[in-house]
Amino acid sequence: MSDADARRDVAIAGRPLERAERSRHAEEGAHDPTATPYFVLEDLLGAVGLCEDSHLLDVGCGAGRVLAYFVDAGLPGRVTGVELDAELAAEAAAWSARYERVNVVAGSALDLPLAGYTHVYLFNPFDTPVLEAFLDRLEREAVGPVTLVHMSDNGEWPAYLGRDGWTVLREGAFDLSGAKGDCPQHYTVRRLPKTGRA
Prior knowledge:
With 198 residues, this protein is α/β, with parallel strands linked by helices. It has one domain: 3-Layer(aba) Sandwich (Rossmann fold), CATH 3.40.50. It contains five helices and seven strands. Strand 1 (55-59), helix 3 and strand 2 form a beta-alpha-beta unit. The N and C termini lie far apart (42 Å).
């Protein structure tokens, strides 16, 4: 974790939000909790067209780095973090409770109703089979256009093959060698313009 990111975490949340721990839910397909560096969030979420009616879902929110960025950047709309690990969800909920446009849900993203979300952020939260199940649900339940930002989709891109309606708006990579030790980390911003197929 960079010192600048840690200081920004503390200024917003009162604590560092990066965790160097293994997932307690690996058997359920969950990956280790990983906080996205702020410079990546500024580049990706700062340019996805959030407005007052937007509702961003951070899948696998961990201790809440995306939520902290949302608050600190003064982004419009609302943000919800969903986290399978109950301890991390409780931590994110505790510090973010004072922000009325921020919500944290403890549980699986596969159990969360997805109809109201306009934007989704993923930082490699789970294995490809879980991602495929999540995308299936999102496609069925979406009631309007959805913009999906998938950071670190290096091994998960096959989950998007053969899916009708999705358009790639942007893709590229970030060098996270100073922050994570592995680079480059590919990202894709996709748009589902049509309504759900339920």
